[in-house]
């Protein structure tokens, strides 16, 4: 992941790290068999995409109420990603998040 986010001024770097941490934590916490993390960055005009695939067929959702010990992971992903979703698969699911640098660039100084 660090090779993809090597630019210290990258406007999406911190949000990608946070969302990825939450997605991986969800797999570790809610599945017995683990999962697979994939990320790619087809710059310049396509958002960076992070996917976590796991064998659990349950489709996660943002809970309406959180507990004091968890339940905020997808709400965090929702807050920091430009888009995210769940794709059911025959062998589980993929939870993905996208981060669009073009939306986050500072406007040029005039």
Account of the protein in words:
This protein has helices at 13-30, 73-80, 101-104, and strands at 36-40, 48-54, 83-89, 92-99. Helices cover 27% and strands 25% of the residues. By secondary structure, the protein is of the alpha+beta class. Helix 1 runs antiparallel to helix 2 (73-80). The chain has a single domain, classed as Heat Shock Protein 90. Strands 1-2-4-3 form a four-stranded antiparallel beta sheet, covered by helices on one side. It is globular and about 50 Å long.
Number of helices, where a helix is a run of at least 4 consecutive DSSP H or I residues: 3
Helices and strands, in order, run as HEEHEEH
Low-confidence segments, given as residue ranges, are none
Strands in their spatial order, largest beta sheet? 1-2-4-3
CATH level-two architecture: 2-Layer Sandwich
Query: What is the overall pLDDT average?
Result: 88
Q: How many strand segments?
A: 4
- State the assembly state of the protein chains: single chain
CATH class: Alpha Beta
> Structural class, judged by helices and strands?
alpha+beta
Compute the number of structural domains.
Answer: 1
**Spatial gap, N to C terminus:** 35 Å
